[in-house]
Amino acid sequence: MSESRPEPSTRADYSAFRTIPTRWMDNDAYGHMNNVVHYSLFDTAVNGWLIENNLLDINNSTEIGLVVETGCRYFAEMAFPDIITAGLRVAHLGKSSVRYEIALFRNEEVKASAEGFFVHVYVNRKTRKAAQLNPALRAALESLQK
User: Fold this and answer.
1) Helix, strand counts (H, E) of the chain
2) Alpha carbons 84 and 89: distance in angstroms, whole number
3) How far apart are alpha carbons 35 and 37 in whole angstroms?
4) First CA to last CA distance, the chain
5) Three-state DSSP class for 5?
6) Which of 21, 54, 104, 129 could potentially form a cystine with 114 if both were Cys, beta carbons 3.0 to 4.6 Å apart?
7) What are φ and ψ of residue 141, in 5° steps?
8) Residue 89 has pLDDT above 80, yes or no
9) Is the bond leading into 135 cis (omega within 30 degrees of zero)?
10) How many CB atoms within 10 Å of residue 85?
11) Which helix (H) or strand (E) holds 120?
12) 32-58: per-residue pLDDT in tens?
């Protein structure tokens, strides 16, 4: 029995947005954005949001998020010189972890060209032992839950 392919989500399904231009080097030999670039855009969207909201200081934060799981589903091609809007939401919050879901929207399109996720487990920067989400981070992440 075959499962039907899920429909791409829309911009209305996401809480925060970040615009990221594509680059010439993002295209592969087939003339579209290389698969690895999608993951880089996911990482840029999440960490950019954390930094802009004063939730991550990449050089000095005591706790940092390590990616422990990731995935991507592709719906439509993107390529340079497209402008990508990354939609961001939080699907799950644990004591020391968060599952981010990110959609990539090509130019002004309403439906996602790609959707992905990754799970951050927060750890102490020095010991790498799990650390509970601090109250400010938890509150900010709760604001991204849909």
Assistant:
1) 2, 5
2) 16
3) 5
4) 31
5) coil
6) 104
7) -65, -35
8) yes
9) no
10) 19
11) strand 114-124
12) 999 999 999 999 999 999 999 999 999
